[in-house]
Design goal:
Structural class: alpha/beta
Strand content: 15-25%
Number of helices: 13
Radius of gyration: 23 Å
Order of helices and strands: HHHEEEEEHEEEEHEHEEEHHHHEHHEH
Number of strands: 15
Largest sheet: 5 strands, mixed
Low-confidence stretches: 1-33
Helix content: 25-40%
Length: about 425
C-alpha cells in the first residue's frame, strides 16, 4: 500500500491514537507494524467521515495527516465493505473545468448493529444504524434475574427485531452496570442482579452467531457521546451514570480508560455524606444515596407514589407535587456534589450526566450545576440522548465503538 506522509503540525481533529506515526527515522519509537498502521489509518478515515461527512478526500487527508493517496485507498476499501459511499457533489454557481471533487459520507443504509442493555428491572434490546440512531427497540421485563433467563429473553427479543430490520448485523453490543471485564466479555460482579462471573459474550455469541462485545454502561455511553453526541471532539470527558447502579467513565482523545481488568469507574462506595446505610457496612456511600431505589423508597415513605418506578416520581413532580419536586432536586444536588468531587480528581474538559432529573427538569439541572460551582457549571450537561433511547444507545455503542476503532476487523464479514 502507499506509504503515509508525515503528519502535518496542526492538531488533528481525530483521536491521537488514530493518527499515523511520524517518520521512524525521526523518532526512537519503533515503527508500527503494517497491519496496525492500516487499522489505525482506516479508523482515522472512518471517524473523519462520520464527523465531517459529506467530506472531500483532500479534507480527510488534512484532518488525519495521511497522504491523499492513502486516503483514497482507505476510502475505496471502506466503500467496498459498505461503510462509506460517495455523496452528491456540491452544487456551485457556473461551470467548472475538470472533474469535480466528489465527497464521501458514512453509508448508514447497509448494515446495523444490535444493542443489549441489562438494567435491574428489565433488559433493553435494540437495533441501531451506523450513526447510532435507534431504529427499533424493546424492553423485556425480568421475571427473574437468573443470568441464563435474562440472556435468553434478550436473545429471543433481539432476534425478532433483527428479523424485521431487513439488514445484516455487524455484531452485538452489550452494556451492563457493575464490574464488567471488556476483554473477557464477562460480568465479573453485579450485586443488584446477583451476577458473578457471567460469561455474557460466550453465551450470547453461541446463541446469535454474531460477534459480541461487552462493556460497562458508563463506558458505553462515554463512547456514544464521543462518536455521536454533543461532547464529540472534547479533549477529555467524564460520564456519570446515575440509575439503580451509579458509576462513571473517563475518556481522553486516546480512548476510554478501563484500568486493570476494566475496574475503572467503580465509584459506588465513594463517601458522599448522608444517612443511608450501605451493604458495605458504612453509611452515605454514593450509590445508596443516589440510586433510583432510594429515590422511590423515599417517595413511597412520603406518600408520593407507590412502586419502584422513578418515572412516577417525575410525573408527580410534573403535576406539581411539592414533595416529589423536592426529592428530585435534592437528588440532583447530590449528583452535583459527586460530579464536583470527580471534577476535582480528574479535571475533565466536559462532564456528561445521565440522571433522570437533570435530563427532564430545568430546576434539577440548575441545582446540579449550582453544586458543581459557577466556575465549572458550563462544562456539565445532561446526556445527548433522549430518555427513551439512552439505554438502547448504550448497548449499541459498545459494538459501534469496536467498528470505528477497527473498521477492517470489526466483523467476520470483512475478513
Amino acid at each position: 500500500m502507499p506509504r503515509t506522509a508525515t503528519p502535518r503540525t496542526r492538531t488533528p481533529a481525530v483521536p491521537s491514537s488514530a493518527t499515523v506515526a511520524a517518520d521512524p527515522s525521526a523518532s526512537p519509537v519503533p515503527r508500527v507494524a503494517d497491519p496496525d498502521r492500516r487499522r489505525t489509518s482506516a479508523s482515522a478515515v472512518l471517524r473523519s467521515v462520520l464527523e465531517h461527512g459529506p467530506v472531500a478526500r483532500s479534507t480527510v487527508a488534512r484532518l488525519t495527516g495521511l497522504s491523499p493517496a492513502a486516503v483514497t485507498e482507505h476510502c475505496a476499501r471502506l466503500a467496498g465493505l459498505g461503510l462509506v459511499r460517495e455523496a452528491a457533489p456540491p452544487r456551485t454557481a457556473g461551470a467548472r473545468v475538470g472533474r469535480p471533487h466528489v465527497p464521501v459520507e458514512l453509508d448508514d443504509t447497509g448494515f446495523v448493529v444490535a444493542g443489549v442493555h441489562v438494567a435491574v428491572p428489565y433488559t433493553t434490546v435494540a437495533v441501531l444504524d451506523l450513526r447510532g440512531r435507534v431504529l427499533a427497540r424493546r424492553e423485556v421485563k425480568h421475571a427473574s434475574t437468573d443470568p441464563a433467563r435474562v440472556l435468553t429473553g434478550a436473545v429471543d427479543a433481539l432476534q425478532a427485531l433483527l428479523a424485521r430490520a431487513g439488514r445484516p448485523a455487524l455484531g452485538v453490543g452489550v452494556a451492563v452496570g457493575g464490574w464488567v471485564d471488556r476483554d473477557s466479555g464477562t460480568v465479573v460482579e453485579h450485586p443488584l442482579l446477583g451476577w458473578r462471573d457471567v460469561p455474557v459474550r460466550e453465551q450470547l455469541g453461541a446463541r446469535t452467531g454474531l460477534p459480541v462485545h461487552v462493556d460497562g454502561h458508563a463506558r458505553a455511553l462515554v463512547n456514544a457521546e464521543r462518536l455521536f453526541g454533543r461532547a464529540r471532539g472534547s479533549g477529555s470527558l467524564l460520564h456519570l451514570f446515575v440509575g439503580n447502579v451509579v458509576d462513571a467513565a473517563f475518556a481522553t482523545r486516546d480512548g476510554v480508560h478501563h484500568g486493570p481488568r476494566s475496574q475503572a469507574g467503580a465509584i459506588a462506595h465513594l463517601p458522599l455524606g448522608g444517612g443511608e446505610p450501605c451493604g458495605c457496612g458504612r453509611v452515605g456511600c454514593l450509590q445508596v444515596e443516589l440510586s433510583e431505589r432510594t429515590l422511590c423508597r423515599r417517595a413511597r415513605e412520603a406518600g408520593v407514589v407507590d412502586g419502584a418506578n422513578p418515572m412516577r416520581v417525575v410525573a408527580a413532580a410534573a403535576g406539581g407535587h411539592p414533595v416529589a419536586v423536592r426529592l428530585l432536586v435534592e437528588r440532583a444536588r447530590m449528583v452535583g456534589r459527586a460530579a464536583a468531587l470527580l471534577l476535582d480528581v480528574l479535571n475533565p474538559e466536559r462532564v456528561v450526566v445521565t440522571e433522570v432529573g437533570a435530563m427532564l427538569r430545568a430546576d434539577c439541572l440548575a441545582a446540579l450545576r449550582e453544586e458543581v460551582g459557577s466556575a465549572r457549571a458550563d462544562c456539565v450537561a445532561p446526556t445527548s440522548f433522549p430518555l427513551d433511547s439512552v439505554l438502547a444507545v448504550a448497548g449499541g455503542a459498545v459494538a459501534l465503538d469496536v467498528l470505528f476503532r477497527d473498521p477492517l476487523g470489526a466483523s467476520p464479514r470483512f475478513n
